[in-house]
Amino acid sequence: MIFAFSEDIETAFEILAKGREIADALKSELAAISIEGHGKEEICITYGADKVYSIDSGLQADLIVDCISSLINPYKPEILLIGGTRLGKEVAPRIAQKFGVGCASDCIDFSLVRGELIVKRFVLGGRFIATQRFLRKPQIVTVPPRRFEKKLDKDRKGEIIKSSIELVEPKVQILVIKKKTPEALRIEEASIIVSAGRGLKKKEDLKLVESLAKALGGALGCSRSVAADLKWLPEEHWVGLSGHKVKPKLYIAIGISGQVQHIAGIRDSKTILAINNDPNAPIFKACDYGIVGDLYEVVPKLIEILK
Amino acid sequence: MDIIVCIKQIYDLGQIKVDTASKSPITEGVARKISDFDKNALEEAVRIREKHGGTVSALIGGTKEAAKEALAMGADEAVIYSADTDSLGTATILAEIIHKMKYDLILCGEASIDEFSFQIGPRLAQAIGIPVLTYARKIELNDGEIVVERGLENRYELTKAELPALVTVTKEINEPRIPTLLQILGASKKKITEISPPKPEAGIETLSITAIEMNRKEIILKDTEELAKVILSASK
């Protein structure tokens, strides 16, 4: 048996698609674990699940851990796939610790090699890929959102089972939930990102970079120094391994030297462009196209042409 | 308020070179430092002690150098251990050490910046059976309770738990202090305990680590017109 869980429904569909491949190869069943009240149980079946266990945990991590654990005990799944949202990344290691097993975080790929689950993930600041295997079961894997394609099959049939676990009082109480405003930037989802770095002389000059972003219908990003050291932009704009990992179709780095951590955060971009006045800046070794020049000349000219 | 801060010493990632033949990382001679968010955890612990009194103990997977830095930043004592294992092993070691300590609060960075696994905090809390509040951007303490504002993808949550509890902090929570010369000198008087716990069982085996190939075109354009053309075709 393979279990798949994510409270984020799109991510759930994505891991079900990948889980389906593994389940077919292992001739095993794929069960989705879905939070009751989301009304998505049937859809989980059309996206690849044989069974759906509906749990009454809400978004309480304590309860999700209990509910999933109580399903692991009787069904002894070989593999547990968990969507790598922030909640998923709390729940997965807790379950792993409870069962004394490993958990591979943010796997960018996983497959069966001679029947054994082999996972690949970024390590050492995202410059290296580790290939790993599990020493005991269940094998717990978290998968980043938007990593795999979901697959719809409307004709699939399956079973929905309501889990009947007695819930205990969670140790952590949620007092208030404040939704981030819909306009709040989710830079991971932008298809074009124009980012500013230390090459800018003052905060006001962000407007220049922003107007290029606007002209292209893209989002404004920035390097670590702009967000963390200078605090010219809030954390949502911070692109890099310790900020946000992005994969737009076009990434334009303006006045960004290209530190290891920044590069690791943009590695999956389709096309990377760089504008920098230092010909030796590492960004030029990590981009597709670059211009060595003064951003204060290049960017206004660029906006002019693009208009 | 007695606080334990769990700290990982990591390689200075920018200094790691790649072996040209095997593509594996060369870590020999690479300087090491305290992982970024663990500094935020330590800073927060010191601020809480400054406000509420008590002690701050730094529990460090690493060397004396990291211990000295943590002590200079304000920890009262440091315990160092070596942790050549995975997250399961590390959490097991930490749980074992903490079992013998007195504490009200445990703070961890949300993740280490080399692995980015986000595992140690949640695992440790699970192992010792205390509440865990992850991704904290604000912590308040009153009367045996802790209130934490957590940042999630699309929402903030204000959450509450009874002490003792474990909190993992984000980089947003504070700006870690840079110790003064006086604090660095003062740190040499504080106690560092070195322990060597037995190697626990691991859950994961690493088969290989290889550098990611950079397959970018690296074309340097001469003028802005060309750049504009590239932008137009790439943004389609």
In words, what does this structure look like?
The complex is a heterodimer of chains A (307) and B (236). In chain A, helix 3 packs across helix 4 and helix 5 runs parallel beside helix 8. With 307 residues, chain A is of the alpha/beta class. Chain A has 8 helices and 16 strands. Helix content of chain A is 28%, strand content 27%. In chain A, the strands form 3 sheets. Chain A has a 7-stranded parallel β-sheet, with helices on both faces. In chain A, strands 13-12-14-15-16 form a 5-stranded parallel β-sheet. Chain A has a 3-stranded antiparallel β-sheet with strand order 6-7-8, with no helix packed on it. Chain A is elongated. With 236 residues, chain B is an alpha/beta fold. Chain B contains 6 helices and 14 strands. In chain B, a hairpin with a 6-residue loop joins strand 2 and strand 3. The N and C termini of chain B lie far apart (57 Å). The mean pLDDT of chain B is 95. Classes of the chains: A alpha/beta (307), B alpha/beta (236). Chains A and B meet through helix 3, helix 4, strand 5, strand 7 and strand 8 of A and helix 3, helix 4, strand 8, strand 10 and strand 13 of B.
How does the SSE layout of this entry go?
The complex is a heterodimer of chains A (307) and B (236).
Chain A: E1 2-5, H1 9-26, E2 30-35, H2 41-46, E3 51-55, H3 61-75, E4 79-83, H4 86-98, E5 103-104, E6 109-113, E7 116-123, E8 128-134, E9 139-143, E10 159-162, E11 173-179, E12 192-196, H5 206-215, E13 219-222, H6 224-229, E14 250-254, H7 260-266, E15 271-276, E16 289-292, H8 295-306
Parallel strand pairs in A: 1-2, 1-4, 2-3, 3-10, 4-9, 5-9, 12-13, 12-14, 14-15, 15-16
Antiparallel strand pairs in A: 6-7, 7-8
Helix pairs in contact in A: 3-4, 5-8
Chain B: E1 2-11, E2 17-18, E3 25-26, E4 32-34, H1 36-52, E5 55-61, H2 64-73, E6 77-81, H3 87-99, E7 105-109, H4 120-128, E8 132-142, E9 145-151, E10 155-162, E11 165-169, H5 181-187, E12 191-194, E13 204-211, E14 219-220, H6 224-234
Parallel strand pairs in B: 1-5, 1-7, 5-6, 6-12, 7-11, 8-11
Antiparallel strand pairs in B: 1-4, 2-3, 8-9, 9-10
